[in-house]
C-alpha cells in the first residue's frame, strides 16, 4: 500500500475515533442536562448545536483553515432542510413510541440504507457483509430493545424518520463526491438551513412532547454551563459525522453508531452504575462480533478489488471497513445520533442522529 493509502487509512481511523469520542461525550453531557437538570428540549438544543457549529466554521473560514467552495444552492438548501426534518421526525418518533420501538426504528436504518443503495445506486453487498450486519443488528436488538408498544401514528412517524434519515445520510456521501467538496465545506453551507429548520419547529415540537416552554425554563448557571458544553462538543460531533460518511459510507456510519450505543451502555454500567443485565452483556458481545466480522469482510473485499480492478476504479471504491489493514484511496471528503436512548427526545448527528 502506498503513501496515499496509508494517509487515507490514518485519516479514516482518526475520523472514526473522533466520532466515537465526541458522540459518547455529548451523550454523557446531555444525560446530565436532561435527566438531572430537567432540560428536556432536545430539538431546540440541536438547533443551537448547529448554530454554534456554523459560527465555529465561519471563524475557521475567516482564519483560512479551509476554503469556501459554493456549489448548487438548491441542493444545499434541500439537503439542509431534509436533515432538519429527519431530526424532528426522530424526536417525534420517540415521543409517540416506547423506547423499545424507537430502538427498532434506529435498527431499521441499516437495512433501509442497504436497500436504497442497492436499488438506486446499484451498490452490491455480499452475503458475508449482509450476514455480519445481521449479527450486529441482532446483538444491538438484544442489548437495547425492551418493550414494543405499537400505535398507528407512532409507526407512521417512525417510517418517515427512517426514510428521511437514510436519504440524508446517503446524500451526505453522494454530494461530497459529486461536487468534490470536503466535509467541512458541506457542513458549513448546510448548517444554516438545518439550524433554521430546527429553530422554527423546535420550540413547538418540544412543547408538544414535554408540555414545557423552552423560553420559560429556569436557566440556572449549572444549566447554562452544560448547554454551552453540549454545544461545544456538538461541533466535533457534527464535523466527525460528515467526515465519517464522506470517507466511508452511510452503512459504515450506522455500524459505528451502534458501536457507540454499546460503549454508552458499558460506560453507564461501569461509571454511573446504571442497571445492567445478562441480556445487555450478551447483546453487546454479539454486536461486537458483528462489527468485527463486518470490518474483516470489508477488508477482504477491498483487498480483492485492489487486486482485480484498475487504479481508477479502486479510487472510486466505497467499501471501507471500520478498521482495516488495507484501504482503497477515495476522493477527499469528509453526518444527526445514535447512542443511548434517553426518556426524552434525542437526535441522530445526526442522532439522533445523538
Automatic annotation (TrEMBL):
<dbReference type="InterPro" id="IPR050186">
    <property type="entry name" value="TPT_transporter"/>
</dbReference>
<keyword id="KW-0812">Transmembrane</keyword>
<keyword id="KW-1133">Transmembrane helix</keyword>
<feature type="domain" description="Sugar phosphate transporter">
    <location>
        <begin position="22"/>
        <end position="295"/>
    </location>
</feature>
<dbReference type="InterPro" id="IPR004853">
    <property type="entry name" value="Sugar_P_trans_dom"/>
</dbReference>
<feature type="transmembrane region" description="Helical">
    <location>
        <begin position="75"/>
        <end position="94"/>
    </location>
</feature>
<feature type="transmembrane region" description="Helical">
    <location>
        <begin position="196"/>
        <end position="217"/>
    </location>
</feature>
<feature type="transmembrane region" description="Helical">
    <location>
        <begin position="45"/>
        <end position="63"/>
    </location>
</feature>
<feature type="transmembrane region" description="Helical">
    <location>
        <begin position="278"/>
        <end position="297"/>
    </location>
</feature>
<feature type="transmembrane region" description="Helical">
    <location>
        <begin position="223"/>
        <end position="244"/>
    </location>
</feature>
<dbReference type="GO" id="GO:0016020">
    <property type="term" value="C:membrane"/>
</dbReference>
<dbReference type="InterPro" id="IPR037185">
    <property type="entry name" value="EmrE-like"/>
</dbReference>
<protein>
    <recommendedName>
        <fullName>Sugar phosphate transporter domain-containing protein</fullName>
    </recommendedName>
</protein>
<keyword id="KW-0472">Membrane</keyword>
<feature type="transmembrane region" description="Helical">
    <location>
        <begin position="156"/>
        <end position="175"/>
    </location>
</feature>
<feature type="transmembrane region" description="Helical">
    <location>
        <begin position="12"/>
        <end position="33"/>
    </location>
</feature>
<dbReference type="Pfam" id="PF03151">
    <property type="entry name" value="TPT"/>
</dbReference>
Amino acid at each position: 500500500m502506498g503513501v496515499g493509502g496509508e494517509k487515507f487509512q490514518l485519516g479514516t481511523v482518526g475520523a472514526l475515533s473522533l466520532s466515537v469520542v465526541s458522540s459518547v461525550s455529548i451523550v454523557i453531557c446531555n444525560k446530565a442536562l436532561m435527566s438531572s437538570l430537567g432540560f428536556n428540549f432536545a430539538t431546540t438544543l440541536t438547533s443551537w448545536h448547529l448554530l454554534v457549529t456554523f459560527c465555529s466554521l465561519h471563524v475557521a473560514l475567516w482564519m483560512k483553515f479551509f476554503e469556501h467552495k459554493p456549489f448548487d444552492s438548491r441542493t444545499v438548501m434541500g439537503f439542509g432542510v431534509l436533515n432538519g426534518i429527519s431530526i424532528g421526525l426522530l424526536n417525534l418518533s420517540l415521543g409517540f413510541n416506547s423506547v423499545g420501538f424507537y430502538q427498532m426504528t434506529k435498527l431499521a436504518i441499516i437495512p433501509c440504507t442497504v436497500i436504497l443503495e442497492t436499488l438506486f445506486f446499484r451498490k452490491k453487498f455480499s452475503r458475508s457483509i449482509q450476514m455480519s450486519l445481521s449479527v450486529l443488528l441482532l446483538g444491538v436488538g438484544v442489548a437495547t430493545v425492551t418493550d414494543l408498544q405499537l400505535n398507528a401514528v407512532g409507526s407512521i412517524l417512525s417510517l418517515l424518520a427512517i426514510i428521511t434519515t437514510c436519504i440524508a445520510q446517503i446524500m451526505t456521501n453522494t454530494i461530497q463526491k459529486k461536487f468534490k467538496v470536503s466535509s467541512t465545506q458541506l457542513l458549513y453551507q448546510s448548517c444554516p438551513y438545518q439550524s433554521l429548520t430546527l429553530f422554527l419547529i423546535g420550540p413547538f415540537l418540544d412543547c408538544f412532547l414535554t408540555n414545557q416552554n423552552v423560553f420559560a425554563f429556569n436557566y440556572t448557571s449549572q444549566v447554562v454551563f452544560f448547554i454551552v458544553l453540549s454545544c461545544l462538543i456538538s461541533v466535533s460531533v457534527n464535523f466527525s459525522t460528515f467526515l465519517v460518511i464522506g470517507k466511508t459510507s452511510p452503512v459504515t456510519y450506522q455500524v459505528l453508531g451502534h458501536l457507540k450505543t454499546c460503549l454508552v451502555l458499558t460506560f453507564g454500567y461501569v461509571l454511573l452504575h446504571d442497571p445492567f443485565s445478562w441480556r445487555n452483556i450478551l447483546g453487546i458481545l454479539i454486536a461486537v462480533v458483528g462489527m468485527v466480522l463486518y470490518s474483516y469482510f470489508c477488508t477482504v473485499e477491498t483487498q480483492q478489488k485492489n487486486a482485480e480492478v484498475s487504479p481508477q476504479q479502486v479510487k472510486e471504491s466505497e467499501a471501507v471497513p471500520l478498521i482495516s489493514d488495507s484501504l482503497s484511496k477515495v476522493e477527499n471528503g469528509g453526518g444527526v445520533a445514535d447512542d443511548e436512548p434517553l426518556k426524552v427526545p434525542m437526535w441522530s448527528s445526526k442522532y439522533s442522529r445523538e
